[in-house]
User: Fold these one by one.
Assistant:
Number 1:
Amino acid sequence: MQFTINGQAVEASVDIRTSLLDLLREHLQLSGTKKGCDQGACGACTVLVDGTRINSCLALAVQYQGRDILTIEGLAGDGALHPLQTAFIAHDGFQCGYCTPGQICSAIGMASEWEQGVPSVVTDDLAGPVPHLSHDEVRERMSGNLCRCGAHNGIIAAIRETLVKEAAE
């Protein structure tokens, strides 16, 4: 099977029943993507496929051949952290750090959804302009990513600071 992972062409010979998560972690040694619940409920395994966030534990690797897969390892460029990674540090958006890669990848996917005007459950006007990224709006949009340590306030603050700043530029 052939993949594009973090901008690099990768070839792997794995069983067609191999999940994308297991391909990344066990076959390609990209251990940044975490295995949490292995049932799609926690978001620790979130990666971006063609810019869309997915739970890699629920995805068969064979389904994603030839598509652009971005993991936490692919976010930093030229030795510099991604702005969202920097914001997580500044806002103490992690404690144990286990959920952090999935949170960051999910937030980047969420930003794309937001920029496209995709509403959330708490969006007041479904036909109106892109909603303001209030605390509740971000919390709802990130609800598929759990943090057992309770760093949600720092996570939301980091996301809001980064997304609002990037949207203004």
Number 2:
Amino acid sequence: METKTVGIIGAGTMGAGIALVCTYGGHQVKLLDTSQAVLEKALQYMQSVLSKDVAKGKISEEQKAAILERVQFLSDMRLLADCDIVIEAVPERMELKTSIFSELTRVCREDALLLTNTSSFSITAIASGMPHPERILGFHFFNPAPVMPLVEVIRGKKSGEEQVQAAYRFARDLGKVPVLVTDTPGFIVNRIARPYYNEALRIVGDNTAEIGQIDRIMKLAGGFKMGPFELQDMIGIDVNFATTQSLYTDFFQEGRFKPSRIQQRMVQAGSLGRKTGEGFYDYSK
């Protein structure tokens, strides 16, 4: 496998996880964030995951050190100029993503692949008006990125076939299972997942059952590894809510995608799940 230089923009949970996947794959990684505190937290996360892998005998201490040496922690986007691939993994705000890609088209080489980890936004819309839109694609990992095998490779209206195949091969070489998807709101997984979350929230809103009961039933009777509320807490209630809002808008307010006021209030309160220590469950202890 050819070693590449991979830039990752956004060092939150998803960005740090993607960085770890790429370093495991032998690539040089430039992890970029405007917040030094976020970069430090990303390093701590990567060290923690790697230490667990050492304890399990998956890698040696020497391999752990070599993996960490392949990562640079940066805050200046201009330093991504030599990257073969750049993966954007910032929060789901369209104006933020388009501003990043606008800057990347000025900074990066014309043959660099520019990938977005968006979970729901239109790839065609993100690439709109950008020079060389053929190199802009969706590349959607799932949380936690080092564990979840699937990557959705999303083809925008102007994505080039050569670039689509290159992104597909890259995902496969990372040890992931890539699936090619046409640009549509929510793609495959998040579109299918909306009823799982939305109906669970409606059941709670109707006082039909409690949160813990629903999660337990879905695991015992449905065979799911996590119930809908446990899963929202892990993903981040703000992330889940933003994805539902995006699908609801892009499907022209189709009723089945209507967001929940329960989620809205929790986002307003800052109760976002595991990352804040409180969501549908209490993680403070």
Number 3:
Amino acid sequence: MRKILAAAAGVAAAATLLTGTAQAESNQYCDRLTQIGSTAYVKNYETTVASVKQYKGCGKNFSYIYVWDQWIASHGRDFTLRTHISIRPNNSRGYTTGARGQRELWGSPADTLDVCTRAHGEVDGSSYFLFAKTDERC
């Protein structure tokens, strides 16, 4: 019976690793955030690499990127994350670059609540450069 329970727990843990969604951790600049717009997904063909989200709170906008477990399991942590809030035309605020192998990254506060914005997130590896943008919010 113990072997069956241990096997079931192992299967459940593996399923969580492969199918779990990204959950935002606390933001160092603001503890009252609300996600605005939909989540964008960084993809490598059909494989989801990371989630990109835009938040508002404390009078600012924030971008956020989180690399999924399944990507790290198959590709390791040989990547750098970047994120920012983009505004038209081709301008950005809160641009932030993470440390090599960092799994999640918050962009710096962007004073952009009065303009149309989208969050932009990048996963830059030694043999790939992948990115996604959220829908525009006005």
Number 4:
Amino acid sequence: MMDRRQVLVAGGAALAGIGLGVMPAFSASVGSLRVASLRFGSLSWVLETIRLEGLAEKAGLELVIEDVATNQAGPVALLSGEADVIVSDWPWALRQRGLGEDLKFAPYSSALGAVMVPNDSKIAKLADLEGKRLGVAGSPIDKSWLLLRAYSRNTLGKDMADIAEPVYAAAPLLAEELRAGRIDAALNFWTYSARLSGAGFHELIGMDEVLKGLGIEPVPALVGFIWREETEKKKGPAIAAFLDAVAKANAILAQSDEAWEHVRGLVKPQDDAEFAAIKAFYRAGIPGPWTSAQTRSAEKLTQVLKDAGSGAFIGDKTRFDAKLFHAAGS
């Protein structure tokens, strides 16, 4: 599941500079941090940008990347102590916090998934999904699916699970099923929606529209960096340096097409159109600072998820805790 590889080492880089007779202009060491990253996932693009720009070295940060094979492996790595920081969604972290794990969250991406259909599809609105095969990434308790069902009940007066035929599958398989025409539409994660957008498919409805339709506004970032409070006590400067490096790398990716060319091998687009769509989706999802308004939206969304999933997704006994959010609790 995991393969430890140390990719950004401030001390090693400084010694290399001395060996070349160059005085390194790096900050004093802030320590090391183990970050779990899905290989070829969007975080790997940011980490590679951090490496290429020397952002960890400049901050005096020793960054150790723990490659994980699946999205599910990240939370396992955090809870087992194999990683200090992971990327996951805050509803999961909130549930874990309710179970006694004192976790913290800082936003990483506000990019959300969408229901995608072929450009030549006759499906023009949500109601047109009635009687159609609708692919759903994940399981019957996937948060996007629960929210889409709640939205359809509010807007159509019908549960999408009752009027469409849901087909549950892993995100990459679902994208291929849609490409092959074996399903009529697909509710998928943003990365796969972006790839489809560049390959002859368009968005029927985005999850941002769904959330706004459910009264969740401003729409809070759902995905972010998660760590333990205990880790922050021991490695607070390293966590702060890492979040700053990520912000700087994102600022570069937001503006520089050349920077994207350096990570194209990790993005693995099929063609230039797909690559352009992924860049656009990613840039649109770079979040700003977490605000008190987003905390209020997160609290409202917590209740919506509880109601939509009958507690199966987030847990009946999970209580909203604003201390989860790094900006709110700092």
